[in-house]
Amino acid sequence: MIYFIPNILSKKECDFLSKRFDTEKPFNFSGDNRKDTNVSFGFRPSKGFDKYMDILSPKVLEFNKEITHLNNVNTYVREYRNSAFLAKHIDREEISITMSICLESTINKDWPLFAEIDGKEYSFHTNVGDGILLFNADKNIHWRNSLECDEDQRVLQFFLHWMPINYVVKETKTLI
């Protein structure tokens, strides 16, 4: 399942997180692999970003009633510049639910996220504050094609990752 969620974060929140990324960037090494993203720059940001996992998890649960609880895995922020992309991939096993939120975009065109689910291709473009929620990210291929833009332009994406925890009520035997 994949969902487009408009305005999941306010413009003010996105501005704050974008500035926080720019502040933290000089002190972090990129965790991105060139073969997977080309010229992007991404890292696990400070705890200030992690609070959004708790804030947004109730919203995630609204989209899938089979899931009762979520385990927060991690957050990640990635800056895409000209010729950056996201290679076709599935997420690692402990990341079953992924939300991608656009924090900043200085490009003047759509740059969608693609996903293939049950043989059908979906694509969604996000404006600042919009999010894409992907269930079974560890089973469904998703990607972004190469970004073509001016050298001074960028798209900043915020990723939140969860693992569902389902509590199954077991029937108990009684003597009655």
Describe the structure.
This protein is α+β, with helices and mostly antiparallel strands and 176 residues long. It has a single domain (2-165), classed as Jelly Rolls (Sandwich), CATH 2.60.120. Helix content is 20%, strand content 35%. It has 3 helices and 10 strands. The strands form 2 sheets. Strands 1-8-5-10-3-2 form a 6-stranded antiparallel beta sheet. A hairpin with a 2-residue loop joins strand 6 and strand 7. The radius of gyration is 17 Å and the shape is globular. The model has no long low-confidence stretch (mean pLDDT 92).
Top keywords for this entry?
single chain, Jelly Rolls, alpha+beta, four-stranded antiparallel beta sheet, 176 residues, 3 helices
Summed over residues and divided by their number, the pLDDT gives a mean of: 92
- Uncertain segments are none
CATH C-level: Mainly Beta
Q: Let me know the largest β-sheet.
A: 6 strands, antiparallel
Write the layout of secondary structure elements.
Blueprint: E1 2-5, H1 11-24, H2 34-37, E2 41-43, H3 47-63, E3 69-80, E4 86-89, E5 97-105, E6 113-117, E7 120-124, E8 131-135, E9 141-144, E10 155-165
Antiparallel strand pairs: 1-8, 2-3, 3-10, 4-9, 5-8, 5-10, 6-7, 6-9
Summarize this entry quickly.
The chain is of the alpha+beta class.
